[in-house]
Design goal:
Shape: globular
GO molecular function: kinase activity
Number of helices: 9
Organism: Catenovulum sediminis
Number of domains: 2
Keywords: Kinase, Transferase
Structural class: alpha+beta
Strand content: 25-35%
InterPro entries: HprK-rel_A (IPR027600), P-loop_NTPase (IPR027417)
Helix content: 25-40%
Protein name: HprK-related kinase A
Radius of gyration: 19 Å
Largest sheet: 8 strands, mixed
């Protein structure tokens, strides 16, 4: 059994293959100790599909309590399944905060939110910024307080896929990675640790400065930037909210206030340094 204290949420992992606990130590370290002043938000487990399956093509199934949102997958994919399952728990059961499918990078206590569809390069951009002087609050979901409009940090690794794994390893050879898992539904997957628990303790909620919708395009020679109208910014941001329909009017008002108090941009890029320069020089002041 392990506890996984991600800051905003605490998970209790009751069962998992031994290799999962080894990877948890590398990704979370001391964050596996229970915070006794904080309740357990989710009790989760990775269980073998059947006794026979333990010996013949073993599979594991993710459970949150008694609920299993995913089909059984090969035991070799146990750690990615655990991280995906933790994401599912938050997206499925968080009814007090607005959750945007987005990365969140923070500098000088100012947050930039990067909503993006799969294939946009969001996670590669997240990892690059996290290892280039930014604080990465999440590569997967922005947790926003509807009252303060502030975004909360999460102590979670970055999930990198396919060629992005080798790129980040080449650019940052001292970075700490999990083993690469091949042949998942997302291709090859590896997780990158971007915070230690001690470093995470210095992070606090941050105000949102801008919303940037990124799109990697190998054919772009220069960074292309287009500022959005408030109407288009609202449409695109609300479309990326996991729990927009559940929060209903609260979600509408939260997105509306975010759009009114920030700038929104589309960017198309093929050079991550150009993106970093734009964010640092033109948005973060």
């Amino acid at each position: 059994m392990r506890y996984i204290n991600t800051g905003e949420y605490q998970f209790k992992l009751t069962h998992a293959p031994a290799a999962v606990f080894t990877t948890l130590e590398k990704m979370y370290g001391a964050a596996q100790s229970a915070d006794t002043e904080k309740p357990v938000d989710f009790e989760i487990s990775l269980k073998f599909d059947s006794l026979i399956r333990r010996f013949i093509k073993p599979q594991v199934t993710f459970f949150s309590g008694d609920t299993s949102p995913f089909k059984p997958l090969p035991i070799s994919q146990s750690y990615p399944v655990l991280e995906w399952g933790m994401n599912w728990c938050i997206a499925a059961y968080e009814f007090n905060k607005l959750i945007i499918h987005a990365a969140v990078a923070v500098k000088n206590q100012q947050a930039i939110i990067f909503p993006a569809t799969p294939g946009s390069g969001k996670s590669t951009l997240s990892a690059y910024l996290a290892l280039s002087g930014w604080h990465l609050y999440s590569d997967e979901m922005a947790i926003i307080d509807p009252n303060s409009l502030a975004v909360s940090p999460l102590l979670r690794p970055v999930c990198l896929k396919n060629q992005s794994i080798d790129l980040i390893k080449a650019w940052f050879p001292n970075a700490s990675f999990s083993k690469t898992t091949h042949d998942t539904q997302k291709g090859s997957v590896a997780h990158l640790r971007v915070h230690t628990p001690n470093r995470y303790q210095n992070l606090h909620q941050a105000n949102i400065k801008a919303i940037v919708f990124p799109k990697y395009d190998a054919n772009k020679n220069i960074l292309e930037i287009a500022e959005l109208s408030k109407l288009e910014g609202f449409r695109k941001l609300s479309a990326n909210a996991f729990n927009y329909n559940i929060l209903a009017l609260k979600a509408f008002n939260t997105v509306k206030q975010i759009i009114e108090t920030t700038s929104q941009f589309n960017i198309a890029y093929n050079n991550l340094k150009d993106v970093n320069d734009f964010l640092t020089e033109d948005i973060i002041v």
